[in-house]
Each structure stands twice: as C-alpha cells, then as structure tokens.
Amino acid sequence: VEAVHLIADGKAPRIPQPKEGATYEGIQKKENAEISWDQPAAALHNWIRGHDKVPGAWAKIGDQVVTFYGSSLVDASVPAGQELAIKGASRPGLVTKSGLVIFGNDGKMVLVRNLQFEDGKMIPASKYFSADETAALELTEEEKKMAEDIR
User: Fold this and answer.
1) b or e along 96-129 (b: 16 or more beta carbons within 10 Å of the residue's beta carbon)?
2) Domain Formyl transferase C-terminal spans what residues (predicted)?
3) pTM summary value
4) What are 29-86's pLDDT values in tens digits?
5) H-helix or E-strand containing 65?
C-alpha cells in the first residue's frame, strides 16, 4: 500500500536498472533473422526454432524470401529427394517426403517441415515442388444451388 501511495504522490524512488546481468532481448526484426549457412546443423536448428513463429528465420530460394518453420535435427543417412538450391548454402537442400532437409557445415542434417512465401502462403516443405499445382474445386449439385442462393 505504501508503494502505491508513493507512486501516486510522485515520490517513488527511481533506480535505473543496471545493464550488467540483464537478460532481456529486444523484439527481433525480420531483417535480422536471415539464416547464416556457415554453421553446424545444431546451430541452424537453434536459429530456426529460436525465430519460430516470429519473426521467422528466412533464406532466399531463387529471388524469393522463404521463411522456415518447424525444424528438427536428423540423425540418419541422407534421404532421397529433389535438390533445391538455397542462396548462401554450401550444399543444396533436399525436398523429401518428410520436408526440406538442409545441411550444416559439419555435414549433419536439419529437417524443416513448413515453408512460408513472401505472399503469406504457407505450405508443407515436402510439397515445395508441387506448390504451384492447383486442384479445381468441384461442387456437388446441392453446393451449386447453395452458391446460387448465396449470390
């Protein structure tokens, strides 16, 4: 109660917090979350997971900024997949049935499960090469009637 009264009266002491020992980190910005590829797989995984969801660790694939989400370390043999060139990476990634496999400078692997494009569209990383395919929406007769009623 006394502290509240001191604050209300404008008489509370103001002691600046020392910078030494502070653990608070400011809000991360997207431009600071670019993936640096010259690191071991564990560091890549930590970087991606540390920026998952906001702001999202990103890299350039072609001319597009792609954000990586949901990584895990892989301790297995190199899986079969389709190569994907990633700007700055010493080795191309592999789009596999499980997701996108990327490589650290130690040769170990990280599996990324989801990718988000600049337009906001998110896809499973395993569907990267089929992302442009679109399926036609077919309505049943009942759905067509409902669509007309709504129109």
Assistant:
1) bebbbbbbbeeeebbbbebbbeeeeeeebbbebe
2) 29-130
3) 0.70
4) 888 899 999 999 999 999 999 988 888 999 999 999 999 999 999 999 999 999 999 9
5) strand 64-74
Read off the tokens for 150: 């709504």
Do residues 56 and 30 lie in contact, with contact meaning Cβ atoms separated by under 8 Å? yes
State the amino acid at position 14 in one-letter form: R
Phi-psi region of 56 (alpha: psi -120 to 50; beta: other; left: phi over 0): left
Show the tokens assigned to 108.
């170990």
The domain tally of the chain equals 1
Q: Could you report the per-residue pLDDT of 106-149, keeping only the tens digit for each?
A: 999 999 999 999 998 999 999 998 855 555 567 788 888 888 88
C-beta atoms surrounding 44 within 10 Å: 28
Q: What is the CATH number of the domain that holds 90?
A: 3.10.25.10
